[in-house]
Amino acid sequence: MSTPPFFEAPARAEAAEAAADAYRDAFGETPEGVWSAPGRVNLIGEHVDYTGGLCLPLALPHRTFVALSPRHDDVVRVRSAQEAGADWEGSLAGVGPGSPDGWAAYVAGVPWAMGSGHGFDAVVDGHVPLGSGLSSSAALECAVAIALADLDDLPTDDAGRAELAGACVQAENVVAGANTGGMDQAASLRCREGQAILLDTRDDSVTHLPLDLAGAGLALLVVDTRAAHSHSGGEYGARRADVERAARVLGVPDLRAVAADGLEDALARLAGEEGAQVLQRRVRHAVTEIDRVARTAQLLRAGRVREIGALMDASHESLRHDYEVSARELDLVVDTARAAGALGARMTGGGFGGSAIALVERDAVPEVAAAVRDAFAREELRAPQFLAALPSEGAGRDA
Ligand code: ADP
Ligand code: MG
């Protein structure tokens, strides 16, 4: 059995230096500083961040770097190593809903949302796979946000970071036009090494929870299926509309308000609605998923990380059958990883493609990865990419 190669995160100092070098090539001078922010995986609590739920993300060691210098005018000039030939330059006065389009929205949208008084020159170099459900978009926004906060002497304690996360969500929703909840930005800005965050999306409060995978002899394997999630935007909006309608019918602000032991009653009350069966399945996912997050958090608090596998499995089944946001490739990862001995596995992120995670005995990682690779080859699917999710530090300054 050969072991599939892993997509490793480069050493932080070297990656920061590379970004500074790229800045020098682009602008002919040394940048004021280099900042970076991580991608994330969500351990559990999927598709509940827009209905007042709980989620449990951790930051990846894979980060997006931005080398940046402030300017005295309101011009932004930015280029990215991942978007060669698509350099962007414009004035902050021209940034707003839907403008600029393309990748620069994730950069220029941030000072717009922060109400920043000045422009900047910046070079981006990212090591989070783009469009894989590992949140390269939030990593980019949050790297820019922490840079601007640092330069403008804004608070960067946890409360300050919560503010910045809000601005990054604004940039993504309004300027980039991507209708997402707040999990990705909270994870990228507020996570700490060796920990996951329990994020309560009702009030954006965060509890840091220990996630000592190595200490338990475990690893969290990430499989980027590299399957395009083409219709994810429309389906995402449809799911949001479903849970918002269900909450209205039930007379609650959000589905968090439905306790797990009130689920049967809530389902009964939806019975007369148009499309009741679908609506009931959506509600069942949200309510049971929020309960699974709470139970996962309890296990982590007690240091019982080995026991979260069953909850991960149940989460995936709920997303697959009740919420209907999985994909053939995600199901294949999950089924194969479980058969190869994973303690639990589930899709992570929005779904319809993107990535899945598996909780695996550390020694079994090569075996599980090889089984997934072989299963994809047998089904004649594009080869997946493997990453290791070591709980890493949130956004910060590198140089
Ligand atoms: P995900 O966040 O799961 O990676 P999204 O579709 O939300 O997927 O965001 C991906 C988009 O974010 C890219 O298509 C690009 O526009 C932008 N982006 C992310 N990282 C970079 C980067 N390093 N350079 C340029 N654009 C980036
Ligand atoms: Mg994203």
Fold and architecture overview:
The structure is a single chain. With 399 residues, the chain is of the alpha+beta class. The chain has helices spanning 12-27, 105-114, 136-151, 158-175, 183-190, 232-250, 263-269, 276-301, 309-322, 328-339, 365-378; strands at 33-42, 54-55, 57-70, 75-80, 88-91, 120-126, 195-200, 205-210, 218-224, 344-348, 355-361, 385-388, 396-397. It has a six-stranded mixed beta sheet, sandwiched between helices. A four-stranded antiparallel beta sheet has the order 10-11-9-12. Strands 2-7-8 form a three-stranded antiparallel beta sheet, with helices on both faces. Helix 3 crosses helix 4 (158-175). The longest helix has 26 residues, at 276-301. The model has no long low-confidence stretch (mean pLDDT 96). Bound molecules: adenosine-5'-diphosphate (ADP) and magnesium ion. Adenosine-5'-diphosphate binds at residues 64, 80, 82-83, 103, 106, 124, 126, 130-137, 140, 178.
